[in-house]
Every structure is written in structure tokens, then in C-alpha cells.
Amino acid sequence: MPNEQKSYPHEMLREIYEQPAALRRTLALYVQNGELDPEVAAALASWANKAGEVLIAASGSSRHSGLAAEILLEDLCGLAVDVEYASEYSTRGGVALRSPAVIVISQSGETSDTLAALREAKARGEKVLAITNAASSTMAREADVSMPLAAGVEKAIPATKSFTCQLEVLFLVGLFEAQRLGRMDAAEIGANIARLTALPNAIESQLDGWRSQIETLAHKYSDAKTFLFLGRGIHYAIAREGALKLKEASYVHAEGYPVGELKHGPNALVSDSTPLVVIATVDRTLPDSILRYEKTLQLLTDMRAQGARVIAIANQGDTQVAAIVTDCVEVHPASEYLLPIAEVVPLQLFAYYMALEHGVDVDRPRNLSKAVVEK
Length: 375
Fold this sequence. Notes:
Blueprint: H1 11-17, H2 19-30, E1 31-32, E2 35-36, H3 38-47, E3 53-58, H4 60-77, E4 80-85, H5 86-89, E5 101-106, H6 112-123, E6 128-132, H7 138-142, E7 145-146, H8 161-180, H9 186-220, E8 226-231, H10 235-250, E9 253-258, E10 276-280, H11 287-306, E11 310-315, H12 319-324, E12 327-331, H13 339-357
Parallel strand pairs: 3-4, 3-5, 5-6, 6-7, 8-9, 8-10, 10-11, 11-12
Antiparallel strand pairs: 1-2
Helix pairs in contact: 2-8, 2-9, 3-8, 4-8, 4-10, 8-9, 8-13, 9-13, 10-13
């Protein structure tokens, strides 16, 4: 049954299920006939910084997509990328000695801190690219270049489909920049577009299975007082996002850390009441991804010896991870820079079902609003 004909008890669950369609719509804005839109390429060329410097300013979930973009833009394009909290960037003051190309990311396009960051960048003479889910928003209008999402209206306060569409557009920015800089040839660009085009179907095929498994896991772990979410490289951003989703949706405390930082303090918290959620996916075609995976396997082995409760997000069919963790949620294999779009979806579902376990109004968490604006 098409998703729009299904009945959902909450908007958050509906919007999780809408992600494949949202990703397809968003992709269609920037890719025609398997190729990058030349008009978008021309607009981004006028935005780019000659020194290859990029600054990303965002808040909340949008900042987490920016953290993922930092890795992919550096790896795919050789750019030098900094990620700032929008609220910090707009109040830093001082003399700007650099003039990077700026990306502001906001679901609503009206978030006050991010809008202030945009205006500060413009006042410094910097070119700004706005990525929002509202093509007519203030940020979209005031930026030099706008790359809107086609996620559709997002009614639940916890961001789901807007987040995955942000990741998709930022990956596309990476392809546009790699093309402009000559870092990828036409064949490699085409291969990446093909991988991105296939991703929504892969996610769609897994949604029902994830939903069933995650509902069971949420009940199993409902007694936990806090969670530590761990990821390496680009997956650290998804660990941060998984922790944020759990906090805002269910009111259960959680923190996101790089995998290698667990033993630098946070491991003191690990106990029956503080389980781990570890992203242990791998791109077998990329040596650096394999190295990160092997180091994550070692940590999981150590955690098993320590008696920790661990939920892992791993590649489908990965028996090595499944053998050394308490519970394993599988995602279809994908490229290193597209895996985050898939692996965040089970974490969204985990936040949703943990909220239900704790009796939270999942669409309207307390003290939160969809756009944080000045009063």
C-alpha cells in the first residue's frame, strides 16, 4: 500500500515513512537524466571560495548534517571545512581574517540564530548558500544561492525527512564541487548519482523490518537511564543525531561521541542502565572505511568483555558484528558517504518507539518548537 494511503498513529512515524519519496523529490530538483543540473552548477560556481574554504553554520539536527558534510566535502572535494554552531558564529565578533564560502542549513529557513549567522556572513562580504525546506523562506531569499529541499511539510517537531534530505543535498553539493574542481570525472559522477538514485528504494524495502525490530528493542531497553551513541568519521554525525532524537522525542538522556573517545572518560558511565548504540557499518570498497570498521570491531569486542549492553547498526549479513553485540540492526550496504542517510532511519524509529514507551506526545515534545525564532 502506498505510504500516503497508510494510517499512522503519529506524524513523526508518517514522516519517517515518507523519507524515500522525499529523497526522490529532492534528487529530482538537482539531477536530470542522470546528470547534475548545469544551472545549479553555475550558481554554485559563483558561490565557491577560491581558496577552497567553507564554513557551515547551523543548529540542532541541521548542524549534525553539517558535521557529515564537513567529512564528505573534505574527502570528495579537498575543501577546508569548519562547522560552527550558528548561535556562536553570529556572536563571536572580532576581525574576520578569512572569507570562506558559507553554508547555512535550517529546516524552516527562519531559525533566528542561523539567520543571524547568514546576515553576519553577508556583512563580511562572504557568499552564502542556504539549504532549507522552505524555498520562499527568509534565508532562501537573502542567500546568494538557495538549494531547497523537497521534503514536504514536516509537522512533527523532531526532524526526520528534512534531515535525510539535507544529507542528500549536501552530498549533491559535494558532487557539484568535485565536478567543478576536477576531482571526479564524468563516469565517477554518474556512478555516484546512480548510487544516490538507488538509495530511496533500499530504504523503503527495509522500513517495515526496521519498524518491527525497533519496536521490540525499545521495549527491551526502556529501563535505560541514558544512552551513549558512538560513530567514527562521517558516522559520528549520525551518532550525534541519534542521541539528539532520543532526547527530544522521549526525554531519555543520550550523548553522541566518536567511537575512539569512549575510553577517554565516558566508559565510566557504561553499565546495565547505560547501554551503547554503535554505528558499525562499512564501505568495503574504501580502505579508510575498513580501517574505521576494524577499530570499531575491536571496541565492540572490548565492550562485550566488559559486559556492556550494545545495539549496533551494521551492514546486512555482517556476522562479525552480530556475534559480539547484544542486538544488531542491519542496513543494506552502501557507499561510505551515503550510508548515513540509511543508518539514521533506524535511530529515528528508536527515538519514536522509546517515546511511546515513556508516554511522551512524540509529535509535540515539551519546551520545543519547529522553528526557534526571536520573540
